[in-house]
């Protein structure tokens, strides 16, 4: 894939390997990776470009003990923003998170510690979430006298359902461990390092043809926004392209001549 050198970043650190797995690391641990306006601009820059640079999968992880403490409350407080100013901030958050969700490259979030407020909005824009034993999820906006502004009303409500999201916001309810998996906040809960498991998942996903992953990591989200009739039509168009690609032909040939893998429960 292309070199990551041209990126000029202060709050994110990037690295890649020969397989095209990119690590995007939130690198402001002294502020618990709180999202200031500049970090959001960096996320937009990174996730606008990575899909066109040959990235095969992304692991989004964090330095320090906490994944992300959400909106930078200090910056927000100091700036005393007007309503329209904060509305524009939210639009930038949406830009960043839409680039992630709809970008066509699998993003695996490696979670730990606090995944709260805007941190949960960031995590919910990834395609797969892996939690470790320290991970906890919350939407403390209600208690702070705030409201979600980075897409939680869409993505967190999608993950956990409207009733649970309202409960989280009204009461500050915290989810963790098995319960977090059960309600859909994360798909994996590991005993060891979520970074390591996220890398394994990224490597697995990166073995799929890029065109298949593009469809999985953009078409499904787009189709959720459509009527059932339109989604079914769009699905047939996407399947028409994906299911006739040379890479699928090769894999099907292997299945037919019995050299391809079988689906087994273990
Ligand atoms: C921060 C932030 C932040 C920490 N903005 N600076 N999010 C929240 O309501 C969560 C706010 N944060 C916390 O509840 C706690 O900081 C944590 C549970 C995440 C971590 O606790 P702890 O004891 O490890 O750290 P700390 O002592 O609270 O904070 C360490 C430093 O990080 C401290 O800075 P310092 O200069 O005094 O050392 C904190 O100020 C700083 N810090 N969290 C700014 N969030 C688009 S709308 C989205 C709306 C929301 O996201 S609302 C939810 C906001």
The tally of structural domains comes to 2
CATH topology of the largest domain: 2-enoyl-CoA Hydratase, Chain A, domain 1
The unique ligands bound to this protein are: 3-methylmercaptopropionate-CoA (MMPA-CoA)
Shape: globular
Please, what is the average pLDDT? 97
Number of DSSP helical runs: 12
Keywords: Lyase
Pfam families: ECH_1
EC number: 4.2.1.17
GO biological process, one term: fatty acid beta-oxidation
Please explain how this structure is put together:
This protein is an alpha/beta fold and 266 residues long. It has 2 domains: 12-206, 2-enoyl-CoA Hydratase, Chain A, domain 1, CATH 3.90.226; 210-256, Lyase 2-enoyl-coa Hydratase, Chain  A, domain 2, CATH 1.10.12.10. Helices cover 49% and strands 14% of the residues. The chain contains 12 helices and 9 strands. Strand 2, helix 1 (37-49) and strand 3 (57-62) form a beta-alpha-beta unit. The longest helix has 20 residues, at 83-102. Bound molecules: 3-methylmercaptopropionate-CoA (MMPA-CoA). The site of 3-methylmercaptopropionate-CoA (MMPA-CoA) (1HE) has 23 residues, from helix 2, helix 3, strand 5 and helix 5.
């Amino acid at each position: 894939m292309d070199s990551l050198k041209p990126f000029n970043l202060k709050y994110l650190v990037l690295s890649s390997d020969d397989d095209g797995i990119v690590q995007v690391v939130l690198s402001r641990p002294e502020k618990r990776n709180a999202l200031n306006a500049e970090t959001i601009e960096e996320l937009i820059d990174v996730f606008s470009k990575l899909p066109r640079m040959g990235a095969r999968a992304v692991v989004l992880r964090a330095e320090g003990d906490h994944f992300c403490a959400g909106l930078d409350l200090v910056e927000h407080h100091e700036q005393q923003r007007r309503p329209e100013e904060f509305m524009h901030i939210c639009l930038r958050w949406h830009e960043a998170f839409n680039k992630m969700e709809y970008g066509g490259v699998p993003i695996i979030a490696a979670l730990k510690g606090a995944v709260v407020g805007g941190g949960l909005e960031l995590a919910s824009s990834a395609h797969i979430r892996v939690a470790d034993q320290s991970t906890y999820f919350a939407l403390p906006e209600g208690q702070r006298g705030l409201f979600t502004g980075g897409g939680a009303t869409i993505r967190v409500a999608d993950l956990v359902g409207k009733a649970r999201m309202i409960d989280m916001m009204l009461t500050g309810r915290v989810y963790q461990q098995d319960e977090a998996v059960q309600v859909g906040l994360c798909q994996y809960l590991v005993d060891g390092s979520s970074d390591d498991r996220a890398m394994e998942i990224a490597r697995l996903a990166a073995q799929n043809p890029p065109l298949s992953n593009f469809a999985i990591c953009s078409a499904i989200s787009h189709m959720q926004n459509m009527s059932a009739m339109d989604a079914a039509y769009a699905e047939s168009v996407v399947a028409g392209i994906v299911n006739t690609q040379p890479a699928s032909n090769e894999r099907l040939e292997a299945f037919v001549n019995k050299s391809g893998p079988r689906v087994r429960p273990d």
